[in-house]
Structure formats: C-alpha cells, structure tokens
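pinning this so it doesn't scroll away 📌
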Amino acid sequence: MTEPTTEDEELRTWHPDLSALSDQDLGTLVPAAYAVGREAPFVSTSVRFSVEDEAKQRQPRYTPEACERMFQALVGGLAQRRWADLVLGAGTLVRCTGPWPDLAGPARTLAEYLLDHERLDQPFALLAIGGLAGDGVLRAVADRLGQVRRGPIARDELDLVLRLAPAERVLLAELFDTRSFTSPAVAPQVWERVAAIPACVEYARAALESAADRARAVQDGEIPFRADKAFTGDEVAAVGHAARIALLRDEPWLPGLFDRLLPGISVAPTDARTLPSQALLYEIVRAAQEFPTPELVTAIRTVRGKARHAGVPKQLDKMLKKVEAALAERTEVALRLPDLGFGPGGVLRRELGGYTALVTVTAGKAELTFEKDGTALKGVPAPVRRDHKAEVAELRDLAKRVSAQLVTLARALEGGFTVDAVHPFGRWRDALLRHPIAGPVVRTLLWQVETAPGDWRTVLPEADEPPDAADDAPVRLWHPIRSRPDEVRAWRDLLVERRIRQPFKQAFREIYLLTPAEEDTATYSNRFAAHLVHYRRMFALFRARGWTSALLGPWDGGGSDEAVRTLAAGEWRVRFSHVLADWQGEHEIAGTNRVVFDRRGDGGGWREAALADVPPLVFSEAMRDVDLFVGVASIAADPMWEDGEAHEYWVRAWYADLGESTRTRRDALERVLPRTKIADRCAIDGRYLVVRGELRTYRIHLGSANIVMEPDDTFLCIVPERRAAGARVFLPFEDERLSLILSKAFLLAADDAIEDESILTQIKRGA
C-alpha cells in the first residue's frame, strides 16, 4: 500500500485476494490501510478497500507493534478526517496478541483533540482511550460526557465505566458504541467477558430496577405521563445494555422484573393510544433477539396483546420472529416453562359460583371452557359472566399466556433441528414430558433416545411410553433425514391413524439432499433460481423464518440483496440472493438466484464453503426454508396472474416437476383423502388432485392450488371461504396450502350446490 509510481497505474484497479492471509497478517495490514488518506493521489484505493472489507468479514489479530501503529494512524488521520475511529483503535486492544504497548502519548492526543472539537459520538471508546492517557484525561472526558448524558440511569452507567479497569473499558467500547463502517464484527465472547465483571452485573440489576420503578411511578401518576418520554435516549441504550448482561447470565430475578417493567412502559396510564416508552420496549425486545429467555418471550407476547398503540403489535410481531429463532439456538434455557398451577394432563380447574372453569392445554394452545356437574357447557354461563367478571378475565388472560408459551416452545423445539439439540433423558422426562403445560406438545412429537452407544430408539410418547434409560442418556428430536423411507412412511401412517396432530411438520417434514447439479456447481445451488415471486410476500416470509434482508426497491443499491440466516448455533450461514424484477404499483416482483453457504472460521469470520461440506441436516433445513419462500410467494400460486412475459413463467410452473414440499403435500393427501366423504370423487394424478363434480371434472395443482377444468383446461379462479370444509378435515400438521386444496376439493365435489355466481359462470361457460 505504498504510493504507486506512474508505471504502477494498474494497481488502482487491482483487487487482491486476501483470503490466504492469517488473521495476524491481516492485523498488520489494517493500520496501514487506515493510514492511507481517503483523497491521497496515486494510491491504490482498491487495495485499501480490499483490506478493510476483509477485516470486516474476519477477526484480525494485532501484535503489540500493530496496535501501536494503529494508534499512530489514528493520530495521523486527525488533520484530514477531523475525527478518529476510536472503536477501531479500542478494538485492536481487545484483539491484541500480547501485552499492550505504552499508548499514553497518542491516547492523550486523540482524547484532547476530540474533546476540543466536540466529537463525542463514541463515548465508551473515548473513555477507554482517555483512560490510557492517565486519570486526568479520563476525568476530563468523564466530566464532558457527564454534561451531555441525559438521565440518571445513563449517568450511573458513566460512573460504572470510571470504576472499571482499562481492559474492561475497551470491552464496553467494543459492545456499546456504534460500530463504524471499517469495524469488524464484535469479537467472540466479549459479552460473556463483560457479564463476568461484578461491577457490570451489579449495575445491570440496579439499572433495570430503576427503570421498573420509574415505569410504576408513571402508571401511578407520581411522574407526569408524556408519550414516549419516560426515558431519555441515553437511558434507553443504558437499560438495553443492562438487559443484555442480565439475560446472558439468565438471572433468576429477571422474569419478575420484566413482568413489572414491560407492562409499565407498554400502555399509557390514561386512555391514550400511546405508551410511556416505545423506544425502551423495542430496545428490550432487541436485547431478547440476542439473549432470549422463554419468560421474556411470554412477557413480550402478553404486552403485545394489551398495547393500544396501533403500530406496536405489528412491530412486535416482526421482532418476535427473530427472538424465537434465537431462542431455538439457546437450548439451555429454551425449553424452560413454569407450571402455573396446572395439574397432570395439562388442566387447571377453578370453581366459580357452582360452575367449574377449566383451562386445558392441547398440542397447540390452551382453551377456557366451563362445566356443570361434569357436563361440558357452551360459552361462559350467565351467572359466572355476571358475578365473576374479574376471574373470567384472569383465566382468559392465562389461556392466552399459555398459548403464547406453547408457540414459543414449539418454535424453539423446531429450531433445535439445525443445532442437533440433545437433552439429558432425566431432564427431558421430568421437565418436558411430564410437565403439565409442555407435556401435551412433547408427547405428539417423535423422539430418539440413545439406549446404548450409537443405538437410538425412536418413540412417540402419545402412542407408546419411552424406554427406560439412564438420566444422562441423550435424547433428541427425530428427523426424517436420519431414517429409512419405510420408517418414515410407518410414522406418517401412525399419525394419521391415531389422528395425532403435531405442532410443526416433523414426520411429514421435507428432506433436501445434495443433487448431482449441486455437486457440479460445488459452492452454490441453483435449485431455486429463476423463479418470479411476489416480493413483499417473500420479504414477510424472511422475517417469519428468522432471515435478515434489506428491502429491495427502485433506489440506489435497491436492485439486489441476499437474505441471510445463521444456523447450527452460529457455525453455519446460508445466503439466498434475489433481485428486483419489476416494481409497478401492486406488482412488486423479484427474481430468485443462487443459494450459498458459509462456515464460521476460527477467528469468527465467515468463509464460503463447498455444499458437500455442509452438514446434511443443516443443508436440508436451509433449503426447506428457501423452498417455502419460493413456493408460497411464487406468482405461479396467483390464479389471476396475466402479466405479459411473466405469464409464461406462470404457465411453465403449472407443468413443472413437483418439488419436495409438493411431494410431501401429495403424500399427506394420499393418507387423508380416503377418510373423507369425498374420497370416491377424488384421485391423485401426478402433480394434480382430480375432483369429479356433477357439472365438470377439475384438476387442482398440488403446488399452487390453482385449478383447471376438463376437457379444455380452462382455468378456474376460486377464493374459498376461510372456514370451508377442507379446514375441518384432520391434518397431521398445519399447512395452509394443503387446507386450501382440500377446501377447493370439497367445494368442487358438490359443484351443483355452488351458489356463488362468479364461480358458476366460469364452470358453465364451457360445460
């Protein structure tokens, strides 16, 4: 990165491959890259940018000499930038391979310059660097920051930093300051190191207690209510830091504290459709996205149902998707549930004025019902509704909370597939299988118990008792990728025969194995490329499945992006690229592209991996998500699509081979249909369900649920009622498209009874 001569003109467009450099080699280059002026002539900016980009993807390691050069580069850049990236400087010390060099001189220059020029946008790094220059400079920095920090909780955090050792201060700078464009990702285990500092733990509880007390004071009228003004911006950030520390440590006092804090900041003490602190509510949820606990998820869901602000429930729903995805990978706490007074079998009973109220846990939710002398009643009895309003409201709220817990549990269990979560048999038996709330969910799932080394026995507790095993014997969820096809078929038959509905698709789960084409491409898959999808629908599915992606649109840089999800406890990452294809009013169409996988390296950065190296279960689960995105959002599933060239894609999809999800749907139909009253009018023919009505015969596509009518293959557009007959047919798993297909089949099997003129007109036109 020396200045090239005239003969070195080609260096300006040279993009070197730095992947072979060690992390320490990269750490040697980063100070040199920073020292290169942004507007310096005759400098190979491509080399500088390549170094910075590589550093952002990895975790550079800095020798003491490299740390010293980094600080010299920071000082040298002050004249040109009028600013210095102190987070980058503090980060070199976090990643230093030896004793820190003496940095008092450059640290003093940096701190004094930034104070003089009012550049206080990296306060924690400024404190860390100021501390290296001596107590006098540190106190000067603290005094200046104390003048601009707003709110007592934020000032308490400032006092905490002053009590810490220099090495501890740089850790806070790594975590708490806004990261610059050139900064690498947060170094591994930094949160754990901060959470082990006694002073930080003490502050975390004090800050959260103070926040809860203030929320109560607002609700009680001791502090005047102003919408979203209960906490300053600095305090919101400080409480967020405290919440992350406490959540990471999984402190036992946290559930009770969040039960006080969240309701207090989520609903105005008046009838206003506002809240005391929307900012703090969202900050707590962001903390839960990093270090979730089931109790906090339940608390968030509870306030989500009570918030009166129109936009808050919708935003919380989006944020909860990431929380649930993160909870699934935090297996040590994910499956913890309170019993809430429920008895064996998942039933809570309460006597109310001669009637018995029952909150009953099923496989998917909790329901409130009433009995009189053992006889089930419809609805709430009038005397109970009149004389026990508060108790009924409390029980309804309890049912909602338990239902929210069951959703969280199911998603945590399903998310455990990619981490291959294993539980000790004794804990699984006592804390899950026999748990009054978790038990009904756990019993409907297939489990494997290792009864001898390498010998895994599969059991469905709803149909058979688990085998005897030692308390420390491993237990894991069964996945079809680990089983023979005949075993998978047998479990599917049993579920349908016993009418056992699983909380998520397990026995009928799709399997995605590496194809010969993917073996040839080696590092990427085109299996789901070249599809046209409704973009907003796919974007919503990204959020629902825990993927992150920037929003596409007709603006600079909005033409393409990658949806990303980390899997296997952060060891693997999948990327699904897509591009903007059309942006005209309601038709926001995206085109799909390749899928690639990355593996996390020893330094914490990502490296693109060969598909053959991806664990089969991780590969299958990732590709299952992408199949869902394409299958649900594809314009081929839109029966009204008639838009020019895209219509050709729509027609091609009608005749395309079945994908894994559609084959699974066909498998389920083959088992379910014979048990329905329209069985004699239905037949499965390849990719279609053929339904014989009185007026015509129909072919329903098993992928898109679109319909054509024989004999001329005219398309039939139907928007079925939400509670059509197909929705009442027993299904062993939830599948919206399968329910839609069955609903259409029930309707068309009795087409002579259809009263909807828009449908009848289409049917009779060519009959």
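📌 and the second one:
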Amino acid sequence: MNASSGTALRSYPVLLAGVPAAGQGWVHWPRSSAVLLDTYETVALKARLDHDRAGPADHDDPRLVGRVARSTGEQALAALAAAREAQPTWARVPLDHRLDFVRAFHRLLRERAEELMSVLVAEGNPLQVSRWALSAALNLTHPDSVAYARAAMVWEGGHAGRLVRLVRKPDGVVCLDPARNAPMLTALSGVPTLAAGNALVVNAPPTVPLSTAYLFHELVAPLLADHGAPPGTLSVLCAPARPMLRTWLASPHCDDIFFFGGSAQGAELTRSCLEHGKKPIMELAGNDALVVWRDADLDGAVEAALERYLGSGQLCLAPKFALAHPAVADDFTERLHRKVTALRVGLPDDPEVVLTPVIKRNQCKEVLDDAVARGAELLCGGDLVDVHGRPSPRGPFVRPALLRVRGLERAATMNAVTEETFFPLMCVVVPEAAASPAAASDDALLDAVLAFVNANRYGLRNSLWARDPHVVHRFTDEVTNGGVLKVNDSHIGTLPVLPIVGGTGLSGGVFGEANVSFLRTTRLQGISLATGTGEPFDHLAAAGMPRESGPVVAAPSTRIPLPGQSGTS
C-alpha cells in the first residue's frame, strides 16, 4: 500500500475496488500530543493542509502522522457497483478458505501489534485504551471465535432419507460506518463480515480517519487479495457520514447498513433502511449497570467500576452507574473515591494516563447540576482542566467525577443514571436498605435491583459482583436487558467467542441482540436434498409417524452425503 513506515508520514489514498485512487484533497492528522501541547498552532497547521493553503515546510512538519484522501460522491457510487459485481465471486470461495482469511488476519495483527498501538496513540487513544482495543481485536478474530462461526454457519443431518442443511448465506453488499469515538475497533466488524462472503464498503470518518485507513490499507486489503477476493470486494472511502448514508440508502447495490452512532440517529436510520429495503445493523449507545452485592470482592468491583473512566468515559460499553448493596455501599464508594481522585490527565503515550479530552464538556456540567439538584452528592470532580491538570474554563479535560445517590426511585429521576453519559462520570446508587436483615429482605432488595437493571432503556452489557450462587443465578437467568452479561470480571474485558458489542433497547434498536458479525450479515437458509428414490413424499413418516396405526417411531437421523461427497464429514 501507499503508506510509509517508521516515523514518516502515512499516506492513504482512496481504496476504490481494491485499487488506490486519488481523492478530492486530504484529511491530515497531527499527532494528538502535539494538539494538546500546542493546540492553536497545530490546529492551524492542519487547517492549512486540509484546505490546500500550506507552505512547503508544512508538509514536512514533524507533528504530522498521516493523511487520508477524501473520497468523492462518484467514487461512492463506483465502490457500490464494484462491490455488487465482485460479491458473487467472493461468496463462491469456500467458507473454510474465507475463514482462513480471518485466521491470517489474526496472526498479522499479533505481528504488528506495536505498530497498530502506535497509530492508535497518535490518533489520541491513551496507551491503556489502545491495549484494550488490541485485545478486543485479537479476541474478535481469535481461532476459537472463528471455530464458533464455522459451526454456526453450517449444520447438516439426515432425516427421512433426506439430507437437511441449515446454511447461512451472505447478505451481499454491506456498508459500514464506524464509530467516531472508537473507529478502528468498530471498523474491525468488517473482517468477519467479509469472511461471511459479503463485499464491504467502509467509510472512514473524516474527523478521525487514520486508524481505520491503516487497518484496511495495510492489513485487510493485502490479505483479501492473497485469499482470492476480487478487487471490488473491498473499498475504503472517507467522506461525511450523512451524504454517504443517503447514497447507500438510495443505491440498489447496498444490502446492509452497519451503523455505529447515537440512539436517536440509529432509530431514524433504521426507519430509512426499512423504507428503502435495506437491512439495518445498529450499534448504538450504552448505559451499563454494574451491580455490587453484599458479598462482592470489593477490590475487584472497584477496578471494574474504574473502567468507567477509560478514555474519559467515552466508550459505549463502559459501566455508567453502580448499584451497591447498602451493606457494602459506603466501603465500596470510599475505595472507588480514592482511586478516582488519583486519576490524572496527561499525554496519551503516558502509560499511567487513561483520560482523554471530552467532546461533550458542557453536557457534563448540565448532567452534574441536574443530579445534585435532585439529591445526589457530588464526591469529586466535574471541573475543566488543561493537559497539565490546571483548572481552565477552556480546558479540554473534565476532572473525573463521582456521584452518590441514595434510593432507586430518586436515581430514576436523574439523567446521570437513566441516560448514556459520554464523559468521566460514575454514579453510585445505593438502594433503600430493608427494614429487616432477614434473608427474605435481601431477596426483595435483589428483586428491586434486577427490576431496575431490566427497566434501563439501554441494553449493551451489564455486570455483577457477588459470590452467592443464588444471586449469580438470578442475575444471569433473569436479566434480559443487554447483549452481554459479565459476572465477577472486567466489565469491558473481551474474550474469544463472547460478543464484544450488540445489545437491546436503545443500544441496538428493535433488532438488537449480541452481535456476531458472521451471523448479523448473513441469512439462514434451509435445504432438503432427497436421495432420488422416486417414492412420493410421506408427510407423516417424515415427522416420525408410521403409515399404519401404532406407536410413533422416530425416523432415523443420519448424515447423507451430497452428490460427489463422501459419507464422512
């Protein structure tokens, strides 16, 4: 590809049907640390370069990391047409060979892990956030994840002398719009989408395009070509989201729209997708609960709650509020408070830093003021600071905030608890203590807590810290809200096979569920193949009922080979 290595400028043209193409100008990306240390001059440099007003020295400025070409409307249409033409050829490549592409990607990701993290840090992700994103990428493409996908995409067995197959077939052309807060990780959903037999058009967000362009230009595209994908299978564009979405909706060559964004935008887009005959795959907002029971490992629970502040809380799957049992609420809150006040701002390459500049700083103050007005106690944080931690009304950082509110009913009135908050703010909710310490009272409290979790309008993931098997069973059995449930574990931690994203309610829309991209971008098809005996179909016999009266005898279930196949799998 057209990217330089080392510290030289990374330069990514439009990738149109697998071929580098000139765009309409460039989006330049300066190193995020330079923006934080010398904001005005660095932003001015970017503006001169982006608007073609730069001098000769500007192009060699060491603050620059890379540039990504802006695509045109004509290129968006051409990418869709090329994808439609290439997809049937790619889908005919055997599934196992397409899955080998994912396995090869996983190995390449491990080999180039340090390079990927350097791109993420340059883009503005703290080192700890970059490590988490890398772990999620590795688990998404882990061999065990691929093995699960292989088993889920094809099943076959024999019934009534016929081969019955359940096969997932690709939807066709999938258009992917990554999240602005985590572009590389969300764009990675395109890798299993491709392996499922789809063609893919990706729109790298112009506001933060570098890691997405790196991922597809340097890792995905070469591997696709090596595994026999025709050039039109992949295109990578870079244009504003709204006009691109309109193009996808209007095109007969787009089958699925895979969208990451806010719940309101997702609901609007879902309606538009259905009106235009497109399949909506929505990955939207999150407002996760973390439940801390009376017998919880408090040290572990505090560390999980502290994940709220990773990336300054601008991760959709971070815990947003904690429900702490009254018996341990004060101890839990005090431990968490000590940890929160120790967090500090700084440059993203500092291994101790987890905080990033906050986009919705004004909204953070509004949410805090609303919570305090409704009876919450502000324990710390909420003020604006600069990169050195000094108070500043124009500072890009928000000092980590911690709220405490007593009572579920009171908490249910606060936006800090009921809505997604995209800033470094955790609210500890202490349910009303029961009048009696009897076990029955704890059951009633658990009823109230589980009901509160299920009443949440969002449903990305929820977690529990408890040792009592009864409590764990009730949580995992009765919490229907959320695509993922975690117990006594990192809230944001990822594992092979376990879905990373996907959820219910405002987190995934009406079609929301835990998201396995192999499955979400395919459709189930049933196939029955008779052996050619020429006998008429006996409906009752096929259901295990003999022709004559008598006891029901189950039909034998054996694997019958397709023509040209052996009888063994």
